[in-house]
Amino acid sequence: MPPATKSKKPEQVFNCRSGSRLRLSARLLAWYDIHRRVLPWRAAKGKRADPYEVWLSEIMLQQTTVQAVGAYYRKFQDEVLAAWAGLGYYARARNLYAAAKLVAHQMGGKFPATAETLRALPGVGGYTAGAIAAIAYDEKQAAMDANAERVIARLYAVDTPMPRAKSELHALGSALVPDRAGDFVQALMDLGSAICTPKRPACPNCPWTDDCRARKLGIQEQLPVKAPKVARPLKRGAAFVARDRSGAVLLVKRPDKGLLASMLEPPLGAWSEKFPSPAQALKQAPFEAAWKKRPGIVRHGFTHFELEIEVYVAEVAKRPTYLCHPRPSTAKAARGEGDPGRQKRCGPESLGSLPSARETRASPGMTKWVKAGDLHSVALPTVMRKIVEHGLDGP
Questions:
Q1: DSSP state, 62?
Q2: pLDDT > 60? residue 322
Q3: How many domains are contained in the chain?
Q4: What is the per-residue pLDDT across 43-95, written as a single tens digit (0 to 9) for each?
Q5: pLDDT at site 225
Q6: How far is residue 202's CA from residue 255's CA, in Å, rounded to a whole number?
Q7: 254 shares a domain with 164
Q8: Measuring CA to CA, which of 14, 37, 40, 309 is 20 to 30 A from 316?
Q9: Does the N-terminal peptide bond of residue 163 adopt cis geometry, omega within 30 degrees of 0?
Q10: 3-state helix, strand, coil in the chain (%, to 5)
Q11: What DSSP character marks residue 338?
């Protein structure tokens, strides 16, 4: 916790001389004109940004870094789920598609041009609406991402812990937005990414170094103040990686709602506090086979919990006609939870009439046998890819 300081309240900033605010904005824009990053979705200097490209990039950037998104943006394909496999937060892809349909069918094909109307689009919250409105239409909006919040928190030495400080930081940032709103928003993002970094900020290179209260107090690296971390619960379970003689891997489609909705995965058992015993795990297997537990475990962190998975592998001479799996409630199934001791449900899967391994849209209950070389092209989330790779790594 930094030393107690008296941060400026939003109303104090609003009452400051407008010349001071304009000076800060002009200084930042002058820095941006020289040091602006070249990004695949960013319009060239003096060019109007394409609202669709801004929208797409902002949705992809939600809780993901610019470095991670760049490559995915360049290879973006019509099959959104497959293109985003590995990027995380797959609900964004579904919201993007739903928003596109809304614009096409209910808005006459005209993309919303204000922050207020943009909020009507699925997956577009306050930050994203502000970013699109500012960057694409120069509406005076403050799009406060983590970089921008860090810059403003240090500029005014705001020591209110996050996330309580968000409204204060948004008000402070809004007071600085000039006529070149889009450039200002992007400049603030670039400043936080390149100069006002979380650790060891390059204060001498900052256009606001003489105005930064946190730097004058020597507490820049202590701001913004983060709330204490909450321990995330740990869940454990078993996964089943089956291969046929050609080396193809069995994948099944997750429920259409809940965690990783509509994505593919190897068959999973229930998740609970403890790993299932080998005997319990075999009861959770999708079919009877010579299942063997692979040494080691797969670890993966989700936003609200940690996951550890033991992987069982089997090679089959013939693809099974029937698959069995535990029958938890739909909500529990979406979370990977349920009682593994409950009655199993078995049903025929039309394995002989499956679409190609590269097809990513699957109807409920669909299964796929995917060749190892094609795993990169299907909608396989990072955690599931790690599980499959662990299962394939060995004799």
A1: T
A2: yes
A3: 2
A4: 888 788 888 788 877 876 775 566 665 565 555 554 555 666 665 556 777 78
A5: 96
A6: 47
A7: no
A8: 309
A9: yes
A10: 40, 15, 45
A11: S
Q: Are residues 375 and 302 part of one domain?
A: yes
Q: How many CA atoms lie within 13 A of 106 on its CB side?
A: 9
Residues 251, 206 within the same domain: no
What is the rounded radius of gyration, in angstroms, for the C-alpha atoms of the chain? 25
Q: Is 273 a catalytic residue?
A: no
- Give the whole-angstrom CA distance, residue 243 versus residue 67: 35
Q: Regarding predicted confidence, which is higher, 14 or 213? A: 213
Q: Which two tokens stand for residue 61?
A: 């950037």
H helices present in the chain, as ranges: 10-15, 18-35, 51-61, 66-74, 80-84, 91-106, 115-118, 126-137, 146-155, 166-174, 181-194, 213-217, 278-284, 330-335, 382-392
- Among residues 58, 139, 168, 349, the one annotated as catalytic is 58
Q: Which residues pair with 368 in a beta bridge?
A: 251
The string of pLDDT tens digits covering residues 239-259 is 999 999 999 999 998 887 888
What would the mean pLDDT of 303-318 be, rounded to a whole number? 95
Give the pLDDT score at 98: 85
Q: Are residues 283 and 170 in the same domain?
A: no
d(CA 345, CA 116): 48
**Among 23, 27, 54, 51, residue whose Cα is nearest residue 40:** 54
Q: Answer yes or no: is 2 within a domain.
A: no
Distances (CA, A) of 137 to 57, 129, 140: 16, 11, 9
How much is the pLDDT for 56? 77
Does residue 287 belong to any structural domain of this protein? yes
pLDDT tens, residue by residue, 343-368: 344 443 333 223 323 233 333 347 88
Report the alpha-carbon distance of residue 318 to residue 328 in Å, rounded: 28
Tokens representing residue 367 in the block: 């299964």
Q: Scan for tokens 């810059």, then name that residue.
A: 151
Q: Are 323 and 346 in contact (CB under 8 A)?
A: yes
In the predicted model, what is the mean pLDDT of residues 105-109?
90
- Token duo for residue 98: 């739903």
